[in-house]
Protein 1
Amino acid sequence: MKLPETFLTRMHQYFEEQGLQDEEAKFLASYEQPAVHGIRWNRLKVQPSDYASLMAKMEMETDEVTWCDGGFYTPDISLGKDPYYHAGAYYIQEPSAMLPASIIGTKPGEFILDMCAAPGGKATRIAEDLQGEGLLVANEINAERSRALLRNLERAGADNVVILNEDPKNMVKSFKGFFHRIIIDAPCSGEGMFRRDPFAPKSWEKFGPDSCVPIQTAILGYADEMLMKGGDIVYSTCTFGEAEDEDRIHDFLASHPDYEIISHRELTGVSHDPEGMMRIWPHRTSGEGHFCVHLHKKGEREDDPRKNTRPDASTNFTFVKARECFEQFMKGLLNDDAAEAYVKKIRAQFVLHKDKVHLMPVAESLFSHLKVVKMGDFPGEIKETAKGRVFVPSQALALELNKEKIRPSRFLSLSREDERLIRYLRCETISLTAEEMETLDDGENIVVACEDFPLGFAKVTGAVLKNAYPKAWRLMG
C-alpha cells in the first residue's frame, strides 16, 4: 500500500520520540495485512450463553474481541443476506470501534448523547446497555448518514431513541447540563482506516489532520456544555496523530480543569499510557487503529427536572380512540403479562402525530426547533377503514419484540434452512403448512421470525401469508 509521505515522516518522528524505533517497521508492515472484520451480538436479543452456538450455526470460530462483550472476529465475507443480520441479532462492526461504547459505563435509566452517531455501532451498543430505560439521543450532522443510523437502530430493536440531524452547536441551548454521559466518535483524518478503505489515503492528503482539529476542539466544547456535573465523556478517533488525540485532550483539560481522565483496567490488545489514554495499534493486536479516552466531569450529579416530564395525555376523542386501538392490537399480539406491561408504557408515553403513533419517555418540547429524524419509538400508525380504526404495526415494532412476549398463535418461527425465509425477506408471499395453519390466528397480523429472532410482520390469509416486510428493506438478489 502506498502511504502519504507526510504521514510516513510524522510516524517515523513519533516512533523515534517514543523510543519505539523497533516498532516502526512492524507498524508499516501491518498495512500490507488484510483489514480486520467483526460482529457484535445484540444483547437486547441474544444471551451471552448463546454466543457459541450461534457462531457455530454461522460456521464461524468463537474468536472473541477481548475488549467487548459479544464482540467476535469474523472472516472477510458478506453477511448482508444472513437472516440473523436482518433480525438485528448482531451488528457488523470493526473490532477496534467496539472499544468506546464498551468503556463509557452506560447504566439503565440514564440519558446518553452520541454526538456523531452514524452509522450506529456505538449507538446500538449504548441502547443495549440502557435496556429500554432512560433515553439515547443519537445525532448525525449528515442527513444521508442519519438515515442509515435510523435503519441500524431500528434493526437493533432500540425503542428509547431520539435521532437528530443537527449541528452540535444548535443542540447546546436545548440540553445545557442535561446528559449523564456523552460519547464522541470525532470526525478525524482516518489514518487507522488506511488499509480498510482504499480511498482513505487520498482523502487524508486532500484534507489532513489540520482540517479536523478545529472541529474536534469545538465538539469537545459543546459536549462540556451539555454534560451534567458528575458526568462522563468518552472521546475517540480512528487516527494516530497526536494533534487529534492526546493534544486535543491536553488542551481540553487545560481549559476545563474540572475534568479528569479515568483509567481503565488493562485490556488485552489495548495499549494504555500512564495518563490513562488508550490506543489500539494494528501491529500489536487484531484491529484497525483507534484512540480512546474516558473523561469525568467533577462534581455532584444534579438531574435536570425535564427528564421526569412525560408527554401530556389528551382527552381529545381522536387521541383517546387511537390509543385504545393501539392497546387492543398489543393485547392481541402479546401474552397477558407482556401486554399488561406494554399498556402501562402506552398510557405513560403515548404521542399521536396525525395518524402516526409514537412512544416518548420525555416531553416532545425538549426537541422543539431541532431537526428530528425519529421521535422516540414508532410502533405504527392508525388507519381509518370501512370497518373502523385499524392499527398498522411498523417494522420497528416487530424488531423490538422478543419471542417470549408474543402469543404462540401470533409467532411463526422459520429455521435458517427454510427457503421461505429468504422469500419472506424478498417481500414475496409465502405458503403455510397445515400445522402452521392450525396454530396461527387466521386474519391476524403475526410476527415472522428466523428461529427466535423476529424479522417483521405478515397477515395470515388462509394457507398463505400476506407479506408486510418493508419494500425499502427488501433483500435483493
Note: The chain has a mean pLDDT of 96.
Protein 2
Amino acid sequence: MRCKPYLPLLGLVAALVAPLAQAQTPVTQVEAWSLQKTGALGSAIYLQDRAAARATDALLASSNGTPPQGLIGWIVIPKNQGHLVRFLTGDTSNPSAAFDISVDADGRAGRVTAASDPTLPPEQRAQFNARLTAGTNLTTSDLRCAARYNAVMLDDPDSDGWLVWLLASTTESTVVPMGGHYRFHISADGKTVLKREQLSTSCLNLEKPANSVALTTSIVVAPQPLEVHVFLSLYARIPIYAVAGGKLWSVQGASITDAGAAPARR
C-alpha cells in the first residue's frame, strides 16, 4: 500500500477505517504503554538509531568508504547528553571493542578513535547479546518487509532486562517503512527472549512526496500509536495520523494526542 499524496487527509483516514471494520481474523494485540512512556521510548529509539547512522558514516569516511575488516556489529551507549557508539570485532561469543565514536546531542559525530580497552564491561556484553538473541528469533519469512533491519537496544524501564527493536529500514529517502517492525523483551544477560511482539500485521511502505503535510496509517495491533510511530514521525520529520481503537490519533514527534473519534466509514 502506498499513500496517495493528493487525497485529503480525513478522506484517506476514512478510507483506512473500512478494512478494519471488515477484518474477521483475530489480531494478536501487543503491549501499549502510557502516551508519555511511548513518546519517551520512541524518542530514545530515534536518537540511538541516528547515533548509529552518524557514527557509521564517520567510520566509513575514515576508511575510504570500506568498513574495517572483522567488524561484527555495534552497540550504542548513552553518554552525557549524547551517545557513544562502539564498533565491535572478534567472535560473537566473545566480542571486543575496536572503535569508539562519540555522537553529541545534535547528532554530530566526533572523530574515530581506537578503543583504549577492548574488553567490554558485562552490561555492554549483555546489550550485544540481546541484539544477537533478537536477531536469531526471526525467520526469513519474518524479515520479508525489508532487505535490511536496524537494531535498537534500550534498558527496559520496567525490569532489569532489555527492550530490543528490529526495525524495517529503507535506503529510499521518500519512503517511510510503517510496517514490518518487531519488539523483543530480553533477559538481563541478553540471552533469553521473554516476549516477542510483531508491531504490525503486514508490510507497509508509505511514499512521502515533497509536498506532504502528514502521513496516515491504521493500527490494529494496539488501541493507540506505538513507540515505532513516534520514531517514524521523528525520522521522517512529519506528523503521522493513525486510526486506532476507534479514534484518530496525532503523532508529532514525541507528542501523541487524541484527535477525536475516527471518521465514519465510507
Note: The chain is about 25% helix and 30% strand.
